[in-house]
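Page 42, continued from yesterday. The earlier attempt failed because a stray header line got pasted into the input along with the sequence. Redoing it now with the clean sequence only.
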Amino acid sequence: MDNLTHGLVGALLGQAGLKRRTGLGMPALIFGANLPDLDAGCVLFYGQESLAMRRGLTHGPNAWVLLPLLLAGFLWWFDKWQARRGTRPDDRLPVRFGWLYLLSFIGCLSHPALDWLNTYGIRLLEPFSSRWYYGDALFIIDPWILGAMILALIFSLRREKRGANNARRPALFGLAAVLAYINLNLVLTATALAHTPQREAIATPVPLRFWERDMIVEVDGPIYLGKGLVRWSAFGGLADRPRVLSERPACLHPLQLPQFAPADRDLAAFLFWSRAPFVEREERGGEMVDVLKDARFAGAARSSFEKIVRVPAEAEDCHRD
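This time it went through. Structure tokens are written below.
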């Protein structure tokens, strides 16, 4: 999920009462909820190759233990540093390292839990396993969740500022509403899959219209013609026919491309990350090129995840038996 969503989860957990357990409890929750995205810096240095690095080591079990420890240690040191300088706020609660670590851990653990819910996926057991896990329930930026949490946080902070006794209630209600919404979307995804005849279908949430899914399905024809999209709606069921993603016939499967470009690390990273790869021929700069894409980001949830590849001549105009 986006970092604003992660941060809001941490803030609502704090407003629900956890921040009162120790001084600097709120920073521990908010920063902890965003800490696993330290790997986002890989994009600046490795570009497309970073697809093989994201949502791995900093999202796995080792990070759940180590990152909260580092954050708690820093916040503990920061409190002592302010005290030595005479700048520590008088109204700050006593800082308890045990609670700092626990709150940092809770915030940090909420991050992979949310990231699992979208189609981008997460390598939940890295470094013990590089397998990707997908929840397919939420779009990576969900305005319904954002809106609910922002309103809950505003009401909670306003009540707290007035000294009201029930300042925790809006935060608790907001968290409960988000959990209910997540469960609803998990049910919608399962229902969409149950109504799709193809066994290998993938459900991708549609931005804004949470009650719809773009269903990635297998279709007849050449291998590059093997991915199609069909829209499913909770109110209308499946559309009649899938929209084929690529009209380009060939007999080479995208996963076989590295044998023709074994030194292409970007290609290897893309295919490691990809879940439903396909190749589409497009006009770029006045010439026709082959573009490797992922079907998860070819429907309503479009993105710039793609790579220009070279399809060998022997794979041109070849059909399955």
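Notes: Residues 19 and 25 are 4 Å apart (CA to CA).
Reminder to self: strip header lines before submitting.
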